[in-house]
Amino acid sequence: MHNEIMALKKITDPRGSLVVLEQGQGLPFAVKRCYFIYDTKGDAPRGFHAHKTLEQILLCVAGGCDLTLDDGKSKTTIRLDDPATAVHVGPMTWREMSNFTPGCVLLALASDVYDESDYIRDYGEFKKQVLS
Ligand code: TYD
Hints:
Blueprint: E1 4-7, E2 9-13, E3 16-20, E4 33-37, E5 46-51, E6 56-62, E7 65-70, E8 75-80, E9 85-89, E10 94-98, E11 105-110, E12 119-120, H1 123-130
The chain binds thymidine-5'-diphosphate.
């Protein structure tokens, strides 16, 4: 499993900051899909699934949220609140997102198109598969 915090390339000048994720420049997979989550509620956590094969990069382009990652053996919570810091989430990682600030926009870059059959949405089933 590779869940890794990534410092993104940031170009800051007097006009502001620009962050870039580029193939061959640290982006760890070919991006086939991109989506974002917004209008979140601080008390409405999301996620609660793992993927069998999908890899994702998650970052908050605005605001912040907690990202809890669980590989079946240990859990870690990362505060995502910097647009220049992303997390690379590998397959077979249970994820939960919570404590969204108002105005949070959580961006996800994914290694494949949407496929419900790649999801594990039952935690007991995840534990069974990840530990087998
Ligand atoms: P869901 O997996 O519940 O989102 P989260 O991981 O934030 O809890 O997805 C919400 C709905 O959106 C669900 O019906 C599946 C659908 N969906 C797509 O159609 N395409 C996508 O790329 C994604 C990520 C979700």
